[in-house]
Each structure stands twice: as C-alpha cells, then as structure tokens.
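Late entry, written up from scratch paper. The run itself happened at the end of the previous shift, but nothing got recorded in the book at the time, so transcribing now.
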Amino acid sequence: MNALSAKHFRLEVRDKLAVVTLDRPERKNPLTFESYAELRDFFRDLVYRADEVQAVVITGAGGNFCSGGDVFEIIEPLTKMDMKGLLAFTRMTGDLVKAIRACPQPVIAAVDGVCVGAGAIVAMASDLRFATPAAKCAFLFTRVGLAGCDMGACAILPRIIGQGRAAELLFSGRSMSAEEGRAWGFWNEVVEADALLPRAEAYARQLMAGPRFAHMMTKTMLNQEWSMSVDMAIEAEAQAQAICMQTEDFRRAFEAFAAKRKPEFVGR
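Output as recorded:
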C-alpha cells in the first residue's frame, strides 16, 4: 500500500494521528475541484488504514477553517456546466461527506475563524467539533441562490442542533456564533485559538488510547441507526456489542479491573 500523501492540502501523520490542514490561507482555505476529490479519496482510503491511522484532525491554516468552494475555481465554472456535469459535481461533494462518515477513525474538526459553505459541511460531517470564540459557521447556500439542502445538511444538521434551529440557519444562511454553536451542541468545546489544535490532538489521542475497535463500532452505529426503528436499533446494538465482547480489549478491561489497574487497549 502506498504511503499517505496529499497535493491539495497539507497532511501530517504523527504517531498514527493524521492532521489534515486546508492550506490556502490567503483565500481563507477554499476548496477546489481537486481538493474536494483528494479529500474524498483520502477519507475513503482510511477504511483500509485502520492500523496506520487511528484518528484524524482536520483544521485550516492562517486563522480560518474553510471559506467553502472557491468562487473562481468552482462557482464560476459551475455556472457554465450542463446538468450532467453539475450532478457529477454535487455527487462528488456528497461523496466526501459519505467518506468522512464511513471511515472507521474518529474525525475531529478544529475550527477557527471562517467556516462557511462546504467548510461548514465538513465540520458538520466530522464526529466531534472544537472551535474558538472567533469561529463563524454559516450554511450560506441560499445567499448564492442555492437550496440549503447541500451535501446532507438537511439530514445531518437537524440531528445535531434540532430541526427548528437547523431550519433557521439553512433558510437564512446567517452565521452561527461560537456561543450559539456551543449552546446548541454543534461545538463540543470552545477554546482559545492557541489551545485549539493542541486540544483537538489531545482528545484524538485520548480516543486512540481507548478501545479503538469499540469506537469504530460506536461511530458505525451512530450513523446507521438514523434510519432504524427503535426495535431495529436495539437488535443492531445487541449484535454490535456481542461482537465487541469477543475482542481482546474487552478481556483486557476485565483483567485490569480485577487487578485494580488501568487497562491498556490494543484495538482488537
């Protein structure tokens, strides 16, 4: 298997933690056709790299997260495409969200400054979201003449912050302040800018030190149970937990408890 690398964003893998940095700070880190596709492929590939990469932090350079699709490199070309080309693009952007949700690793968004459009979607699709007081998150699609139903926003955002709040943000396209986002449950934590990336990385490593197979199962069930009845979900969780009970980590946890020591998990 080839080593992990990237051309259209900065990628560092340190002790099995991957840090993805959107790195066009002069434009507030917008996405292009190429960076969309490379991010999609990166997260898809993580399915096969569960031992090599155990968690992901995604952030932006220069005090901002992401300003969405680049106006001249994406928006302008879209105005000249036919329906076939447009649908290929919108499916590709949706595939990025699917890939973030489908990879077994926990994905943590570390957000400072501007986080709008597709940037807001990437944060939304992550498993956990840390922000600074300066974070301004906007699902601004209606402000450019598009529907708020972009890349799964109408399905995912209401499940995070509630239907009424999501509807107001998606209809208006206004910015959600860090204070609102924290109160509504969009941001898991709000920390000062100099503490943002260290905090996100520390939390990621805390998860990496835990029962990684069980974390993967938790992420899987959080996503899959949206479309299940309660009875179906209870049965699915029974099967998932029975699988986890066969892992070495489950046995190690019992042995550590019996010996009155902290368990050391191995991820299997």
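The longest helix spans residues 83-102.
(Scratch paper discarded after transcription.)
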